[in-house]
Specification:
heterodimer; A: about 110 residues; mainly beta; 6-stranded mixed beta sheet; 5-stranded antiparallel beta sheet; B: about 110 residues; 7-stranded mixed beta sheet; 4-stranded antiparallel beta sheet; 11 strands; about 0% helix
Chain lengths: ~110, ~110
């Protein structure tokens, strides 16, 4: 069975500081990995995804994530936080065969001025 | 309209009421999903439809009844709900594999 663990339900950074949101996954088959962002009273929006190939994946709004198979991790980073990045972020995994996507519990990012 | 549209955005219902949530996607996708998002809990997959056929029912209580008349429309019929069913219900659609999901804005359901 697949699962996703997001370390830290809340992360707080200062504007301009590095953003690091951690995600570890468990999967018995090569996974597809995703990061989604959710702003208040909105649905989830895809930030980036890893399927195959290059392990460093770039997404929208300056975010990127690196797939590390040996560590079963897919951490999300952004070099410099902006106030508009304050939102909830979800890591997700799906297998290569089907439509079932498993989401982590989410990490709420706070950005301080 | 484009994307995934959910109506209503907010719904308050009594435990004896019957109501329905509606989802419509204008993306030409073949798969549609219902998710439940409760406070402090991971997003829970409820139902998956692929080409109008239900492919996943994640042990959802029978008081939730999905309907998918075509690939563009998905409904969630609700009856005799409990207060713990209060949550944000999200609809999503996808095309092919990997299942990159496109989400609607959700329906905030409150059961009183």
């Amino acid at each position: 069975a697949q699962s996703v663990t997001q370390l830290g339900s809340h992360v707080s950074v200062s504007e301009g500081a590095l953003v690091l949101l951690r995600c570890n996954y468990s999967s018995s088959v090569p996974p597809y990995l995703f990061w989604y962002v959710q702003y208040p009273n909105q649905g989830l929006q895809l930030l980036l995804k890893y399927t195959t190939g290059a392990t460093l994946v770039k997404g929208i709004n300056g975010f990127e994530a690196e797939f590390k198979k040996s560590e079963t991790s897919f951490h999300l980073t952004k070099p410099s936080a902006h106030m508009s990045d304050a939102a909830e972020y979800f890591c997700a995994v799906s297998d290569t065969g089907g439509f079932k996507t498993i989401f982590g519990a989410g990490t709420r990012l706070f950005v301080k001025a | 309209e484009t994307g995934v549209t959910q109506t209503p955005r907010h719904l308050v219902m009594g435990m004896t009421n019957k109501k329905s949530l509606k989802c419509e996607q204008h993306l030409g996708h073949n798969a549609m999903y219902w998710y439940k998002q409760s406070a402090k809990k991971p997003l829970e997959l409820m139902f998956v439809y692929n080409f109008k056929e239900q492919t996943e029912n994640n042990s959802v209580p029978s008081r939730f009844s999905p309907e998918c008349p075509n690939s563009s429309h998905l409904f969630l019929h609700l009856h005799t709900l409990q207060p713990e069913d209060s949550a944000l219900y999200l609809c999503a659609s996808s095309q092919g594999v990997p299942a990159e999901a496109f989400f609607g804005q959700g329906t905030r359901l409150t059961v009183v």
